Amino acid sequence: MKVGVVGLGYWGPNLIRNFLSNKEVEKVCGCDSNISRLKFIKSRFPMVELTEKWDELLNGYNLDIIVISTPVATHFPLAKASLENGKHIWVEKPFTFNSNEAMELIETAERKNLKLFVDHTFVYTGAVMKVKELVDKKVLGDILYFDSVRVNLGLFQHDVNVIWDLACHDFSIMDYIINKKVVGITANGIANYYEHENIAHIAVYFDDNCFAHFHVNWTSPVKIRRVLLGGRKKMLLWDDLHPAEKIKIYDSGVEVNSLDQIHNALVQYRTGDMYSPKVNETEALTLGVNEFIASINENRKPLTSGEDGLRIVKILESAEASIKNKGKFINVAV
Questions:
Q1: Is the pTM of this model over 0.90?
Q2: What one-character-per-residue DSSP string does 9-42 give?
Q3: Angle at alpha carbon of residue 303, lines to 205 and 115, rounded to 5°
Q4: N or C: which end of the chain has fewer CB within 10 A?
Q5: CA distance 303 to 268
Q6: pLDDT tens, 2-49?
Q7: DSSP 325
Q8: Are 215 and 151 in contact (CB under 8 A)?
Q9: Could you write out the three-class secondary structure of 94-156?
């Protein structure tokens, strides 16, 4: 297959490297309007053909796949043009700027019988796949809560706030792991430096008394990437920055033996052993590329399809509506 990557900024070199490494890919081309980025890519990957013209990438190289790694506001027009031109597409997160754009791209891909992959990268990490396996096997029991922290002294984005930039990752992880229906969202936060919020707290409500909370921040003095997952049987900690034991499972929990009068309830706390399962260390982007190409060859939807991207965009839209209205509860239909 021949692959074209449009947008060669921070994530572009990783995309090029992983597509070049796939045995099904015979050629990779790149496009960026920034000449300095083209020179950098050429120095790293001299075999890659490069252009600063989008139309030339789309029409001039006989490509099978277009990979879109540009600001989110440009995702829709680039993806739409690629699909109408008969290309399978890979779109970086977040999928689109709004749900109407996402639905139109899904419809176009189906009409043209093309594959649409949304790069929810963390879904392909060994840690998240292991957590998914544990949840599906009911090792933790019924999931009660999902508590996520993703903070660092990071890069301010010019086109989106911290929810669209960082919480997008954790929403996709939650959506993949927890098979429950989201019914509502509240979000609070503030913009300390310019128009886009740099810190936010988001609460996600499910239809069965399950709850998720997200803390995202571009202005933290420390970097934290941590998820607590509470189940009725066991609890789990995923620390993505831990060098060895990324996942720890605790035989801990709460047992309520009487509900006759809740203020007199007999509550027992259970604290048992902890163990850390082995996780796959293969680079997530490698597995994502493999899955996308396999979905094309097997004529099926990829694991992170347009429909998955649409659900996350709907959650992002609802969180945006809430944070702009000082934490108003927003009903969600996903």
A1: yes
A2: SSSHHHHHHHHHHSTT--EEEEE-S-HHHHHHHH
A3: 120
A4: C
A5: 40
A6: 999 999 999 999 999 999 999 999 999 999 999 999 999 999 999 999
A7: T
A8: yes
A9: CCCCCHHHHHHHHHHHHHHCCCEEEECHHHHCHHHHHHHHHHHCCCCCCEEEEEEEEEEECCC
